[in-house]
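Why do we care about 3D structure at all? Because function follows from shape, and shape follows, mostly, from sequence. That is the central idea of this module. The next example makes it concrete: a single protein chain, its amino acid sequence, and then its structure expressed as tokens.
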Amino acid sequence: MKLSKCLKHALKMVVHSKLRSWLTILGIVIGVASVIAIVSLGEGLEKSITEQLGDLGGSIITITPGFSRGGDIRIGGIIQEEAGAQATDEETVLDRTDVQALRGLSDIELIDTQIRGNADVSYLGKSGSVGLIGVDQKVWSRVTTNEIRDGRMLNSADQNVIVIGGGLADSFFDQPLGINKVITIGDSAFRIVGILDDESNSIVMPIQMAYQLLDDKEKDVYDSLVVKIRDEDKLDAAIEKIEKKLMITRHVTETDRDFSVSSSQQMNEMRSGMISSMSAFLTAIAAVSLLVGSVGISNTMFTSVLEKTKEIGIMKAIGARNKDILAIFLFYAGLIGLAGGTVGVILGIIISGVMPYLMSDMPLARGGTFVSVDIIVIALSVSVLVGIIAGFVPAYQGSKLRPVDALRYE
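And the structure:
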């Protein structure tokens, strides 16, 4: 019997057992839709992070005081020994000496000095505490990953002006903030010149103004240095040069190193790895539905073999071979899997489209969703494969029926 005839018989079986087939297909639909939705969410977030950091071309390096190693941990510049030990008074910082040392490296194009802290802000009688970031306004716009939603970035001539996060602008106070609005930070008034395209409650201002507001910050001492190198293809070499230069000027070695160097590329890889692991875990949970669906397919196949026993006997009596019967039932199982996979993909794409709106307050959904062709092809292939595997045993049993026994079956 030709495969086309086997496929035709299988299609008739699907059509003539609509209710049972669709109840079986439902398990596959739920599993595939769940997998598509979860994977698209993970891929969307990963794509968003990659694009955000990719705008910098992997050329950004961040230097912070403190270094983590086995035995002791340096956090925020304070050396802390293993659990149970007392922290020492030794403090590590970044200062102007480090900046001057780095300026001597030809690989470095820009250096942004930054400090961070918290400050009280008020607007129209309402107040609260927000994160404050002091930056070198001459270079910040060229090294930041942030994008401006309204207004502009800081420039070299700015004084008493700020750029605020989208969350602070939209929902922190009773009334939204806009460009040229004036808010009070500490005891000083600042005019808003830009709003970031994010959901943060942070404020970015010229570093000299930040020193005046943050009493615990010492002038020319920094919380981090953000460095942009000239050639991103030489990122690893640039990091090595920076580390060697700072170890010389700070009089430290690898064993007592007191600073950390990381790149946007490394952060991207680390975040992508975390997202991939989380997506894989959630996908594995969703895939349980496919397992349940495969059990349903097996049950449907066993029932179909019993119902079609007499037909199997007739087909064998007129010349159908064992492999023909096997092919018919495997096609039947594969078609059930394909139908479930197709509907599941469509449903998964629909869910992926509405999920960012339903989960708008969750960080996981801020990158949107992205359904790739690869995941669609994989989902359909797995659906068919699950159907064929689940249906193999009953199909094999049906193909081995003796014509005489099959014709006698009532």
